[in-house]
């Protein structure tokens, strides 16, 4: 077990900036770890060895020359979800249709990472176009959960969450449309944050559902997530939906929370997040975590958000509708796969043949649902109604945040399920996002922090913490306080209980 | 494909049996520096695929940001058309697949246009004023351009493959849609043309577009339907595209009326379809009929936020409106002291801007008007082009007028100079020089010619000397002949009398 | 409400440019039916007086200055293209006129 791969990003950064260890050494340690175990985990679709080492060398030169480093995370390695455009590095979104596509431009998040001196190790696996909750929908194979290699690492950002739990990277970037950062974090015992919609630029993030997509930080600790949050967040004139306001002080909040005092904080437990779909071990872990919050001085009350029940159906109308339009550009004319360009086939035929061959089943299914929901005669009953549900969900949040500072719930109804278990039952698969979707619908921030293991299967459970728009500091503070208390009670960080992976020869 | 005359109903008969209903959709490319949603330039005629970026190429991940100047232009156009400006509106996605559209949806406006419910008044050749209702003006983006390779005609049919250039993709467009235009009867084609002309003049005055139909910066789709005379329910319409000149607008409408009339009289049904206008034959032909009707699945564009133009902003933009064409016509009539008929001739010849520019360049209004409305209009007619397309500029015409006013040119010589400019021989002064057209104002040369003429016709010389002044005409004629008309006849006459007085 | 037929699935596939197989028609017909049945619940709430939400952020009037920015070179533009000719994207013959 290498110190370098098992350290926090904050510790690595401190050592690199102090000259105690070089970024190249840290980066090489992670590249070695990837080489050793990624054939087992399969978190990465593409590893950019040269680019990573070059970025690391640049940071080391700054340190050696006594120049100020570019950011508090300069020199720290990171795994980037393969949904962000990276100039001269393949970007596939886990899809056959974009296999080998090399963007001529960087996403804003990519650019900010580079400018911050963060070392991008490579691109991580994901459900095709971020559609899924298990990373089984990748065209390039499944990613395995380091806690149990027969189980999924969550999705769609399963590659990012697995890379953290497998100690292949101390930091990762995910995107969260209906829970794709928080749900994988929950089932891999890591931290994942969905910022306020508009808090992190979507420019260069290949769109799944434009009004819901939001990039965010993934890490093994709350402070690391906060540090990464401040690197990637902030106004971007290239994204019209980007909020032109200061980034909430999340790093300060994480440090403040670590002092372990939550007196004066009002925490609301959402009554609706329980019932037949919830695993008892998950509910048990959740109840214990609420107890911890109470012990830290928080005032805990129950609140009701009755319209959250409609979030899941509304989401499965809005997201496919927007996706059906967003994914129309993959048509074999300008980039990506082209199939059937022969025997006098027309452009129309080549488009249809390519899309048929290039998209996986879940993507096609959602394109069809979205096409249906937007078509004339059905729009009002489906898309229109779903947009009204959004309004009702936002009102529920508003009312709840009138009473409490943050809301809490389990992040997912169950722990990581077995690979293959839900592939033939889309509706069961969709339930993995039951608790995470409301925050996407209202644009409010939410995060998942490890909340121990479920009694019946010994797998990680996540505590979801939600806050009002642009009030991320509230949830970071609560998460940091909880993290310290939980780790202390358990005698160490949950992540250290991941079984040791067999190293490939 | 050729149409036999049996496929067309005699125009008079169409009007005996049917009332036409028009609907005109005009797409205007704005002359902003950059595209609707990205910072790429909009200049016409660049090398293919050199004015594109991730946004207008629809690359995965790229996002649009609205060009504020385009919104401003849209509001100004709306105000000039007397429209209401929406206090709140959004862009929407119009979803359909087509290779020249990078995202396979067009970012447009659907049920929330930025401007709606206005009107445009136009004057026909005989002075009749027609008020055309404007349904809406909305913002959208242009598509790329396809080049069809193989096959006989370069048209889409029969092509083996196509080549795509996305330089034009994303150029800001304003689509202006009329309300149904009824009650025009026989004058429907004329009204259609007058509407596009009036709109073009308005847009030019607003300085928001190049309004070049030949370059596609102003494009008209003509919707035409017929209903039995006296009926109130509209018939099925066709939409004719590719109408690329003012003349074509008129021809396309007239042709569609005759074609639809023939179909209806024969008991047939009009198909609601898109038709293509062929400039060379003046006919329309059906596009490939779609198996299913288009379902554009419009929904609000989630990548853009709503627009809410404040009342203050709208009022501030109203103050930037220039003198509008109809206001200008009133003023010009007063300033130049024109009769109603003279004004109408001027407007009908499409010469108002040109005459004004010529006056601005220093010519007298009457002279400027005479050149454009009389001489140059004929020339444009015989060439089959618009007046403005003639290869002569207002400042060149003004220079010729100045030369006439200064006595350097006679009217006859001036016409030759203009012909020379039109023939590409350069600036007026250069034509005068190269064609040797200057008035012979050198009195010495004229004296020599006069003396020659007097010597050749001694009897006439005698009469003049004897006081018969009117006999001088014969000598003047001879001198004019000898100088090939390049002398000022009035001056010659003075000199002849002077010579014979001694 | 939904009861998706094979024909409807075929129509949707045509609109979405997906050359689905016969087997997929049957499979999708069944699955879309289940999915649409379960999402139809959105009809239970949200009366007429509820305004729809299309954007989660209350932003308005986000405009850009009309200033030229450098784009991509022709080489970059065409680098990822399946087929290229004369500086343009080469695509198979186009059947329909533009909509
Ligand atoms: Mg349009
Ligand atoms: Zn562009």
Automatic annotation (TrEMBL), chain A:
Pfam families (UniProt xref): Amidase (PF01425)
Xref: Gene3D superfamilies: Amidase signature (AS) domain (3.90.1300.10)
GO annotation terms (biological process): translation
EC numbers: 6.3.5.7
InterPro entries registered for this protein in UniProt: Amidase (IPR000120), Amidase_CS (IPR020556), Amidase_dom (IPR023631), AS_sf (IPR036928), GatA (IPR004412)
Subunit record text: Heterotrimer of A, B and C subunits.
Record-given protein name: Glutamyl-tRNA(Gln) amidotransferase subunit A
Organism name: Actinophytocola xinjiangensis
Gene assigned in the entry: gatA
TrEMBL record, chain B:
Entry-linked Pfam families: GatB_N, GatB_Yqey
SUPFAM superfamilies documented for this protein: GatB/YqeY motif, Glutamine synthetase/guanido kinase
Enzyme Commission number(s): 6.3.5.-
GO molecular function ontology, one term from the record: transferase activity
Keyword Cytoplasm: no
Keywords from the named record: ATP-binding, Ligase, Nucleotide-binding, Protein biosynthesis, Transferase
Keyword ATP-binding: yes
Record-annotated Asn/Gln amidotransferase domain positions: 353-500
Enzymatic reactions: L-glutamyl-tRNA(Gln) + L-glutamine + ATP + H2O = L-glutaminyl-tRNA(Gln) + L-glutamate + ADP + phosphate + H(+); L-aspartyl-tRNA(Asn) + L-glutamine + ATP + H2O = L-asparaginyl-tRNA(Asn) + L-glutamate + ADP + phosphate + 2 H(+)
Gene Ontology BP, a term: translation
Region of interest: Disordered: 275-294
Sequence similarity: Belongs to the GatB/GatE family. GatB subfamily.
Protein purpose: Allows the formation of correctly charged Asn-tRNA(Asn) or Gln-tRNA(Gln) through the transamidation of misacylated Asp-tRNA(Asn) or Glu-tRNA(Gln) in organisms which lack either or both of asparaginyl-tRNA or glutaminyl-tRNA synthetases. The reaction takes place in the presence of glutamine and ATP through an activated phospho-Asp-tRNA(Asn) or phospho-Glu-tRNA(Gln).
Assembly and interaction partners: Heterotrimer of A, B and C subunits.
Record's protein name: Aspartyl/glutamyl-tRNA(Asn/Gln) amidotransferase subunit B
UniProtKB/TrEMBL annotation, chain C:
E.C. designation(s): 6.3.5.-
Signal peptide residue numbers: none
GO biological process: glutaminyl-tRNAGln biosynthesis via transamidation; regulation of translational fidelity; translation
UniProt cross-references to InterPro entries, sorted A to Z: Asp/Glu-ADT_sf_sub_c (IPR036113), GatC (IPR003837)
Swiss-Prot/TrEMBL catalytic activity: L-glutamyl-tRNA(Gln) + L-glutamine + ATP + H2O = L-glutaminyl-tRNA(Gln) + L-glutamate + ADP + phosphate + H(+); L-aspartyl-tRNA(Asn) + L-glutamine + ATP + H2O = L-asparaginyl-tRNA(Asn) + L-glutamate + ADP + phosphate + 2 H(+)
Organism: Actinophytocola xinjiangensis
Keywords linked to the UniProt accession: ATP-binding, Ligase, Nucleotide-binding, Protein biosynthesis, Transferase
NCBIfam families: gatC
Function: Allows the formation of correctly charged Asn-tRNA(Asn) or Gln-tRNA(Gln) through the transamidation of misacylated Asp-tRNA(Asn) or Glu-tRNA(Gln) in organisms which lack either or both of asparaginyl-tRNA or glutaminyl-tRNA synthetases. The reaction takes place in the presence of glutamine and ATP through an activated phospho-Asp-tRNA(Asn) or phospho-Glu-tRNA(Gln).
Protein's name in the database: Aspartyl/glutamyl-tRNA(Asn/Gln) amidotransferase subunit C
Keyword Ion transport among record annotations: no
GO MF annotation list: ATP binding; glutaminyl-tRNA synthase (glutamine-hydrolyzing) activity; transferase activity
Family: Belongs to the GatC family.
Pfam families, per database record: GatC (PF02686)
Superkingdom classification of source: Bacteria
């Amino acid at each position: 077990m290498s110190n370098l791969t098992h350290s926090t990003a904050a510790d690595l950064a401190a050592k690199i900036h102090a000259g105690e260890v070089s970024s190249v050494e840290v980066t090489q340690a992670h590249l070695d770890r990837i080489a050793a175990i990624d054939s087992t985990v399969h978190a990465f679709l593409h590893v950019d060895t040269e680019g990573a080492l070059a970025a690391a060398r640049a940071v080391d030169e700054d340190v050696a020359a006594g120049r100020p480093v570019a950011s508090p995370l300069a020199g720290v390695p990171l795994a980037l979800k393969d949904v962000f455009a990276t100039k001269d590095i393949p970007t596939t979104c886990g899809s056959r249709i974009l296999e080998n596509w090399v963007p001529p431009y960087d996403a804003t998040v990519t650019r900010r990472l580079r400018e911050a001196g963060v070392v991008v190790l490579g691109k991580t696996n994901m459900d095709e176009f971020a559609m899924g909750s298990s990373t089984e929908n990748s065209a390039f194979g499944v990613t395995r959960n380091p806690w149990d290699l027969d189980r999924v690492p969550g999705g769609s950002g399963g590659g990012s969450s697995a890379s953290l739990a497998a100690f292949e990277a101390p930091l990762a970037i995910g995107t969260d449309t209906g829970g794709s950062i928080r749900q994988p974090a929950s089932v891999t015992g890591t931290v994942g944050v969905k910022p306020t919609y508009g808090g992190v630029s979507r420019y260069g993030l290949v769109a799944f559902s434009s009004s819901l997509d939001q990039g965010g930080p993934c890490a093994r600790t709350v402070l690391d997530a906060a540090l990464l949050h401040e690197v990637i967040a902030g106004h971007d004139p290239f994204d019209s939906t980007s909020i032109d306001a200061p980034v909430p002080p999340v790093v300060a909040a994480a440090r403040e929370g670590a002092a372990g005092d939550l007196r004066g904080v009002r925490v609301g437990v959402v009554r609706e997040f329980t019932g037949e779909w919830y695993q008892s071990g998950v509910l048990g872990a959740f109840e214990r975590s609420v107890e911890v919050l109470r012990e830290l001085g928080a005032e805990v009350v129950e609140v009701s958000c009755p319209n959250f029940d409609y979030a899941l159906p509304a989401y499965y109308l809005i997201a496919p509708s927007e996706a059906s339009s967003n994914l129309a550009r993959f048509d074999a004319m300008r980039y990506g796969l082209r199939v059937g360009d022969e025997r006098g086939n027309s452009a129309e035929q080549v488009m249809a043949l390519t899309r048929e061959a290039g998209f996986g089943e879940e993507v096609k299914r959602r394109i069809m649902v979205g096409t249906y929901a937007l078509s004339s005669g059905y729009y009002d009953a489906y898309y229109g109604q779903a947009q009204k549900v959004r309004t009702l969900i936002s009102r529920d949040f508003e009312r709840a945040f009138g009473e409490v500072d943050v809301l809490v719930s389990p992040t997912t109804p169950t722990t990581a399920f077995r690979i293959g278990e839900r592939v033939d039952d889309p509706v069961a698969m969709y339930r993995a996002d039951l608790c995470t979707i409301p925050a996407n619908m209202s644009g409010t921030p939410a995060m998942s922090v490890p909340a121990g293991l479920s009694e019946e299967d010994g797998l990680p459970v996540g505590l979801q913490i939600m806050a009002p728009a642009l009030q991320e500091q509230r949830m970071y503070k609560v998460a940091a306080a909880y993290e310290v208390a939980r780790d202390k009670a358990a005698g160490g960080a949950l992540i250290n209980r991941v079984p040791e992976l067999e190293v490939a020869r | 494909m050729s149409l036999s005359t049996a496929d067309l109903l005699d125009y008079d008969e169409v009007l005996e049996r049917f009332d036409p209903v028009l609907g005109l959709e005009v797409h205007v490319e704005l002359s902003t520096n950059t595209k609707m949603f990205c910072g790429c330039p909009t200049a016409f005629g660049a090398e293919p695929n050199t004015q594109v970026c991730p946004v207008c190429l629809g690359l995965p991940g790229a996002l649009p940001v609205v060009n504020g100047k385009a919104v401003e232009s849209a509001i100004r156009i709306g105000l000039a058309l007397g429209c209401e400006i929406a206090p709140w509106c959004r862009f929407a996605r119009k979803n359909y697949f087509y290779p020249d559209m990078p995202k396979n949806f067009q970012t447009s406006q659907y049920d929330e246009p930025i401007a709606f419910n206005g009107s445009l008044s136009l004057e026909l050749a005989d002075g009749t004023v027609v008020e055309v209702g404007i349904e809406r003006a909305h913002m959208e983006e242009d598509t790329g351009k396809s080049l069809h390779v193989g096959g006989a005609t370069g048209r889409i049919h029969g092509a083996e493959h196509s080549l795509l250039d996305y330089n034009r993709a994303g150029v800001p467009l304003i689509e202006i849609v009329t309300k149904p235009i009824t009650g025009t009867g026989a004058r429907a084609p004329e009204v259609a043309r007058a509407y596009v002309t009036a709109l073009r003049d308005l847009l030019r005055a607003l300085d928001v577009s190049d309004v070049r139909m030949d370059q596609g910066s102003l494009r008209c789709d003509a919707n035409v339907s017929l209903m039995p005379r006296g009926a109130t329910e509209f018939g099925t319409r066709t939409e004719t595209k590719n109408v690329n000149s003012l003349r074509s607008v008129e021809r396309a409408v007239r042709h569609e009326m005759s074609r639809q009339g023939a179909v209806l009289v024969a008991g047939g049904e009009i198909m609601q379809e898109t038709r293509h206008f062929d400039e060379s034959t003046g006919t329309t032909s059906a596009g490939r009929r779609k198996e299913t009707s288009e379902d554009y699945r419009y929904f609000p564009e989630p990548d853009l936020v709503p627009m809410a133009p404040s009342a203050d902003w709208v009022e501030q933009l109203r103050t930037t409106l220039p003198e509008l064409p109809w206001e200008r016509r009133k003023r010009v009539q007063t300033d130049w002291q024109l009769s109603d008929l003279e004004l109408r001739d001027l407007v009908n010849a499409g010469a108002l801007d040109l005459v004004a520019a010529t006056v601005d360049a220093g010519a007298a209004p009457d002279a400027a008007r005479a050149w454009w409305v009389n001489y140059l209009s004929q020339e444009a007619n015989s060439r089959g082009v618009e007046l403005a397309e003639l290869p002569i500029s207002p400042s060149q015409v003004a220079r010729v007028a100045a030369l006439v006013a200064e006595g350097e040119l006679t009217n006859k010589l001036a016409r030759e100079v203009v012909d020379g400019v039109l023939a590409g021989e350069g600036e007026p002064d250069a034509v005068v020089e190269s064609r040797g057209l200057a008035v012979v104002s050198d009195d010495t040369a004229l004296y020599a010619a006069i003396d020659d003429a007097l010597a050749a016709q001694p009897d006439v010389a005698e009469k003049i000397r004897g006081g018969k002044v009117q006999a001088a005409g014969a000598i003047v004629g001879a001198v004019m002949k000898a100088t090939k008309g390049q002398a000022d006849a009035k001056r010659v006459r003075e000199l002849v009398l002077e010579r014979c007085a001694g | 409400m939904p009861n998706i037929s094979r024909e409807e699935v075929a129509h949707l596939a045509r609109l979405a440019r997906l050359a689905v197989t016969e087997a997929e028609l049957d499979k999708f017909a069944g699955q879309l039916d289940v999915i649409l049945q379960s999402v139809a619940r959105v009809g239970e709430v949200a009366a007429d007086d509820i305004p729809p939400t299309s954007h989660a952020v209350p932003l308005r009037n986000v405009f850009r200055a009309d200033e030229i920015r450098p784009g991509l070179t022709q080489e970059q533009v065409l680098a990822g293209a399946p087929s290229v000719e004369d500086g343009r994207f080469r695509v198979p013959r186009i059947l329909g006129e533009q909509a």
